[in-house]
């Protein structure tokens, strides 16, 4: 493979990488994405997926080829999206194939039914050898740093073991968790360095958004108008430093009331973008509904899934989220966003009203 390098102009400064939680975690990426990641120009061995700095990965897949050397195994692991080479070093235990012999006293103790520490140690060693020595077709989990050797991307395993998964429970769980990690983390561009001039505004906006979220959650609010929550943000405006001193001329600028309204408007827009709130009808009377507290919306979505999942077209896989979104907009409100719908679907799934049959497909129970 041809190793791609990150454009220095796009790459975030290395001193900010620690602000991204993905940097210090084992990223559960698809092998295809691991192979296509771009390498850092600042620090060799660091790669970027969607501007997330990646140094370590966590992979689960089937062994499709195997090579054994004196000190290590080379396993080719396939997760369905690609194949990557995993370099798995042998422990001293695996190098010592010969098991220690028993002494006469120990054999006597075992014959009399007593506890034999040597025999128990041998059982542990055999179990460890079995977990670390795999054959083609077996399931392997590997954790370790990503390296590029001879223009070939590979994983140098720090931990690896065979996974016993006769009913495919581990693989199904993995396949269900991976898309959620991508949606909630990997596919979101990290905000590591806001503009210096906008630090104060960004801080106030993030605090305002958090205040509104906490209020809606604690009070279980289902609907509200902007003036119902405006006073909650007043301390953020009052606490801002005044720029003018006694010997300076006053500078023209927005009044405190205007700043408050603007801050509230921006915070509400963020909540709408995240799907936490929406406006069923856009009119002069600004009424915002909380997505997961709107019982009418919950019932509408549940009814749509129950009715449409019975149709022959959706019996096998269930209804896709885009089909559900289109139906909700036709039958309930044109202003329901996909983000709001996904929060509602998550709530219904937690309440066991629906289940997800695959990524982005849902059916009624």
Account of the protein in words:
- The chain is α+β, with helices and mostly antiparallel strands.
- It has 12 helices and 16 strands.
- The protein has helices at residues 31-36, 92-95, 104-111, 117-132, 169-186, 199-218, 226-229, 234-238, 256-274, 295-308, 321-331, 338-350, and strands at 26-27, 38-39, 47-49, 52-54, 56-68, 72-78, 83-89, 139-149, 152-156, 159-163, 223-224, 277-278, 288-290, 319-320, 354-358, 361-364.
- Strands 5-6-7-9-8 form a 5-stranded mixed β-barrel. Strands 2-3-4 form a 3-stranded antiparallel β-sheet. A 3-stranded antiparallel β-sheet has the order 11-13-12.
- Helix 6 (199-218) crosses helix 9, helix 10 crosses helix 11 (321-331) and helix 10 packs across helix 12 (338-350).
- The longest helix is centred in the middle third of the chain and has 20 residues, at 199-218.
- The two termini are 46 Å apart.
- The model is unreliable at 98-105 and 241-246 (pLDDT under 50).
